[in-house]
Amino acid sequence: MGAAQGFRYVERGDGVVVITHHGRVAATLRGGRAAQFLAEVGEEPQLVMARWTGNYRRGNERTAKRHPRNQG
Fold first, then answer.
1. Enclosing domain of residue 42
2. What's this model's pTM, rounded to 2 decimal places?
3. What are the φ/ψ torsions at residue 7 (nearest 5 degrees)?
4. Whole-angstrom Cα distance, residue 7 to residue 27?
5. Per-residue pLDDT tens over the stretch 11-70
């Protein structure tokens, strides 16, 4: 599975973190959640931002598409 792309984040002066995906706001984090995100983002920034915004593929989309429950 490839790395997520197109995410950026900005830490504002008031402690708010704004995460964007392809120029659109995907999440706004404040307080403890912002601090937790900033502590975690150093590792794999694109994947961390994808996880925090809920915008990532789980790898099972094609399988689910073919499931009988999802047919017609």
1. 7-56
2. 0.70
3. -95, 145
4. 11
5. 999 999 999 999 999 999 999 999 999 999 987 898 889 888 886 665 555 666 666 777
Distance CA 62, CA 45 (A): 26
Strands 24-29 and 7-11: unpaired
* Burial of 29 per CB tally in 10 Å (0-12, 13-18, 19+): buried
What does the alpha-carbon distance between residue 5 and residue 16 come to, in Å, rounded to a whole number?
A: 22
Q: Is 72 among the domain residues?
A: no
What letter represents residue 8's amino acid?
R
* Residue 65 domain-assigned (yes or no): no
Q: DSSP letter at 44?
A: S
Q: Tokens standing for 37?
A: 């995100």
What is the total count of domains within the chain? 1
